[in-house]
């Protein structure tokens, strides 16, 4: 079940693993106290990259998909976490409506919906799937593998509520990242619990806000366990608004990349790291459709200018320290993806991409998913085992990093809550 | 992993299974609402017996032992439930002291302690084991299998608190059923959380109080899902104080047994059950050392009179409808034992006894324990599978019955709380 870990078995990452393992009671207590003050996002998946010398979350998804990749052995943890989450939010809940993405043909995505439906049904809710896809005009059933089927029903809007025919939910679970903006049909649902809230959508979120919050979390965590926060925190620069079609814009970008690369080089030198540093250039806000670019030298940026005409006008850009992944499965580059529900790590898998390099984004067409025994592993570290030699200890560490990212998302959602002033 | 279930595959138990499965969302919601009003015992194990036509809890243990029989696959659920429990009771907790039974040689029991220590350590606590055995005068380490060891440390009492050397816990976990009475060293610990409370001990508990509470729970549950509560509730009679050495006492007992047997026969007739009814005679309060006796006819009671001289004076007796177990593993009689922590089913196993009959108590020397895939199973019922044919569905049903017993224990602890008037 456990993949061959080819992560470097010596060096800073193993010290980090040892430190995290030794500090386990303090870490768990710290999380407990944080969750007293901050509400976890309802669910979340975190892409983690392990460079051997550094470990960091690179993407925190508040509308996690691909739940179908969780193995049956992991499901009970998800069900139990779902029970805990529902109990806190709405113990009297009977009916849950899942609002999915608009895919109707993508069977991977539909299997993801079937898995979510299973988890919440097992947790004791009646679950229906309400599509906001205008093409879904009537109840539509799509057959999946293993005799499973998904029925998409058109969402019906009434004042302050949504539902589907003969089904009035008290809670709406969004599995649609709203990157195309918030549709009117989801606005002003004052009579229902909408989870996660609309401002968790990519039309509102900014990478820079998330990573600013993560930086704060990582610093406090570093202090708690006595390690340099850089070991778990990618440096970044909120480059601001850049117009790729202008020389001014490109100069600003080049300067930003050079400054960030210099900072990374300094850190690499401090730790005696021989790898070539790189920077990732991405949109601060995801909804503009701009891709993720890996830059090892600011000279490579010229490529961006060529693609600039596709992007209209100035773009909000974030530059982020790239984190290599040194994990591999059968020669393919791999990165762990950790799944969380409420405050609990409930599972995970490896995203594996045979055609990508260790410094490239793996979340791209061609990726495969390898289920992992995360469920057993993250909760069952083995004290006393040599760092790097124990998969459960490594997965415990991944679970901790993923929870730090989830905590950062919680800070982020508080900071960006449009109704926050109402509570103040 | 799943045992061969030889439970009758037709008849009332399969209808019950179907009804429970169909009502899953309603059942889970009902539990959620109950746990809003009532605090679950911290942890608990429930012996369940399945007669094919009837399913009932026969023992609800508030100081569960034998945790070592839970498989590694079940541990993550226990850890996650322990996290949830601690978070509610004392999120700022750092240190947990386990107060065990006084065994120092029983390696099974010591392995149980090692497992509990593991669960709470993984949940993020520093755990030590503080013995109240007067023979433990200094820190004593006992080696177990697989390189594990248990260190028993003498409990140190200070005003309002207990601890062990250099270790001041905020929470005390009792794993000692206090059947010999509450030792003074555990009284008046007003500055610490004592879990479960002292009145959960067998020196205070009465079987009749528990089963009275269970009867109430079973009736409400029966109404919820539309089944006769008798299908999950053993009839009982709190016989009162009986002096076995007197003819008056024996007459009273005989009358009680006859009346109860007649009631059971009536129910058997109603359901067309051909089995021979029987009654279990046991002490209402466990601490007097009286055994459990199976009585098929009141004439068999004469045996009790012979053993009477061993029991001094009048005894509080409870008569309970015996529940057969029709489950077997490899010809040995078996009964499931379900483990719960906080409000969650976290695992279970089969207790198997090759030398006992289907109407006898299996919790006796010679019993073996067969771990079961309860963890995966109780949370993962399979809707649409024929009743009796799906182990996960059967285990889900067992988990429901065990939770009913736990809920009854919660009612019981409220009713017997010596400090209850302080809150009124």
Q: Which regions of chain A contain 5 or more consecutive residues with pLDDT less than 50?
A: 1-10, 373-379
Oligomer state of the chains in this structure: homodimer
Q: How does the helix and strand content of chain A classify structurally? A: alpha+beta
> What order do the helices and strands of chain A follow?
HHEEHEHEEEEEEEHEHEEHEEEEEHHH
Largest sheet of chain A, in brief, is: 6 strands, antiparallel
Biggest interface and residues each:
A-B, 42 and 41 residues
Describe the structure.
The structure is a homodimer of 424-residue chains. In chain A, the strands form 4 sheets. In chain A, strands 1, 2, 15, 16, 17 and 18 form a 6-stranded antiparallel beta sheet that branches. The longest helix of chain A has 26 residues, at 391-416. Chain A has 424 residues and is α+β, with helices and mostly antiparallel strands. Chain A has helices spanning 12-22, 24-37, 75-89, 107-122, 207-225, 247-271, 302-307, 374-378, 391-416, 420-423, and strands at residues 43-50, 55-61, 95-100, 126-131, 140-143, 149-154, 156-158, 161-163, 171-175, 193-195, 236-242, 279-283, 293-295, 315-321, 327-329, 332-341, 344-353, 368-371. Residues 1-10 and 373-379 of chain A have low confidence and may be disordered. The interface between A and B is large, with 42 and 41 residues.
């Amino acid at each position: 079940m456990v993949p061959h870990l080819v992560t470097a078995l010596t060096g800073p990452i193993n010290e980090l693993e040892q430190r995290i393992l030794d500090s386990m009671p303090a870490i768990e207590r710290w999380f407990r106290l944080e969750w007293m003050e901050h509400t976890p996002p309802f669910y979340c998946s975190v892409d983690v990259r392990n460079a051997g010398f550094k470990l960091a979350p690179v993407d925190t998804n508040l509308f996690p998909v691909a739940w179908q990749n969780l193995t049956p052995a992991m499901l009970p943890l998800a069900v139990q976490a779902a029970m805990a989450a529902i109990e806190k939010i709405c113990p009297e809940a009977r009916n849950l409506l899942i609002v999915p993405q608009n895919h109707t043909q993508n069977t991977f995505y539909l299997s993801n919906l079937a898995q979510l439906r299973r988890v919440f049904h097992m947790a004791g809710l009646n679950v229906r799937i309400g599509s906001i896809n205008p093409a879904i005009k009537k109840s539509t059933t799509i057959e999946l593998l293993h005799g499973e089927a998904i029925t998409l029903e058109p969402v019906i809007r009434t004042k302050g509520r949504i539902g589907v025919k003969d089904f009035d939910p008290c809670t709406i679970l969004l599995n649609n990242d709203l990157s195309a903006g918030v549709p009117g049909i989801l606005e002003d649902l004052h009579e229902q619990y909408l989870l996660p809230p609309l401002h968790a959508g990519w039309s509102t979120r900014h990478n820079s806000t998330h990573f600013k919050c993560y930086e704060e979390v990582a610093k406090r965590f570093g202090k708690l366990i006595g390690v340099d926060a850089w070991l778990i925190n990618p440096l970044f620069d909120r480059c601001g608004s850049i117009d790729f079609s202008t020389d001014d814009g490109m100069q600003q970008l080049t300067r930003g990349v050079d400054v960030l690369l210099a900072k990374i080089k300094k850190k690499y030198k401090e730790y005696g790291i021989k790898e070539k540093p790189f920077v990732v250039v991405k949109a601060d806000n995801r909804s503009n459709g701009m891709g993720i670019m890996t830059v090892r030298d600011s000279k490579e940026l010229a490529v961006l200018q060529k693609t600039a005409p596709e992007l209209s006008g100035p773009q909000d850009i974030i530059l982020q320290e790239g984190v290599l992944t040194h994990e591999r499965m059968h020669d393919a580059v791999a990165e762990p993806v950790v799944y969380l529900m409420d405050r609990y790590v409930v599972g995970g898998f490896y995203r594996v991409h045979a055609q990508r390099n260790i410094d490239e984004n793996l979340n791209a067409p061609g990726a495969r998913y390898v289920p992992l025994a995360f469920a057993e592993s993250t909760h069952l570290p083995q004290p006393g085992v040599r760092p790097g030699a124990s998969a459960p200890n490594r997965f415990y560490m991944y679970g901790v990093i993923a929870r730090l990212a989830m905590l950062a998302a919680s800070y982020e959602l508080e900071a960006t809550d449009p109704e926050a002033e109402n509570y103040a």
